[in-house]
Design goal:
This protein has 231 residues and is α+β, with helices and mostly antiparallel strands. It folds into two domains: 151 residues, no CATH class; 65 residues, Membrane-bound Lytic Murein Transglycosylase D, Chain A (Roll). The protein has four helices and 13 strands. The strands form four sheets. A seven-stranded antiparallel sheet has the order 2-1-9-10-11-6-3, covered by helices on one side. A two-stranded antiparallel ribbon has the order 4-5. The chain is globular.
């Protein structure tokens, strides 16, 4: 069910995003997909490219740095339409398999206005990942006698996206913008702290959710908040 926050169990949420002219990413909260069953695992990949070309007559070659490739995240989802799964909230994932896959595809699909695949935000616990769907494969595993699918396994792979501004932040490896805990002081508010740390105040929703804040507008001096690394 799109946009549903259970308040009971943290479920992986995939949200469609837009990118403005400055390269800033804005999540469209009204266009999101919350899974009914969390993945059992996910993989995160970061790789470095080296120039391995050796000169004529050279026995060995020294690795010369070329670039860091985009980060990648992969995981499998189970979409169930049998009604036997014990759901944390009544009605969550109650649509049939076909409808749930259509909802997921809508969030991940093609942006007709930008004429390119949509950007996505993955949010689950400490994971905040911005990227685009690289591949999606669906395996149907259970059916009604009529042939209508009752369960499906969806394999998803995402390639990371980062604005030029955030790339410059992460390039400074000595910067505290990667991961740290901040003690709230009088006059602090979450958008202000996010702007101070990430140079982007729009992360306040993600930080509030990770820190389980009921009201991000009322921070108490002395409280400690966790700010995860940008991925």
């Amino acid at each position: 069910m799109a946009g549903l926050s259970t308040g009971i169990k943290s479920l992986l949420e995939i949200t469609a995003c837009s990118v403005d002219d400055s390269g800033n990413i804005n999540a469209e909260e009204s266009d999101s997909f919350e899974v009914m069953i969390n993945p059992s695992s996910y993989s995160f990949e970061r790789s470095v490219c080296f120039n391995k070309k050796a000169g004529i007559g050279q026995i060995g070659n020294s690795l010369k740095y070329n670039k860091v490739k985009e980060d990648k995240v992969k995981f499998d989802l189970v979409i169930d339409g049998t009604g036997v799964v014990n759901l944390p909230v009544p009605g969550l994932g109650s649509d049939d398999v076909k409808t749930q896959i259509e909802s997921l595809s809508k969030v991940l699909g093609y942006d007709g206005q930008e004429h390119e695949p949509k950007h996505s935000r993955l949010l689950w616990g400490s994971l905040i990942f911005f990227g685009r769907m690289e591949s999606m494969s669906i395996e149907y595993t259970l059916f009604k006698p009529s042939g209508v699918p009752l369960r499906a396994k969806v394999k998803l792979a995402f390639a990371g996206f980062m604005s030029d501004n955030k790339e410059s932040l992460l390039a400074n490896r000595s910067s505290p913008d990667l991961s740290h805990v901040i003690e709230v002081k009088a006059g602090d508010n979450l958008p202000l702290l996010c702007n101070r740390i990430y140079k982007d105040s729009t992360y306040y929703i993600d930080v509030a959710r990770i820190n389980k804040l009921d009201n991000f507008r009322q921070l108490l001096p002395g409280d400690k908040l966790y700010f995860p690394p940008l991925k």
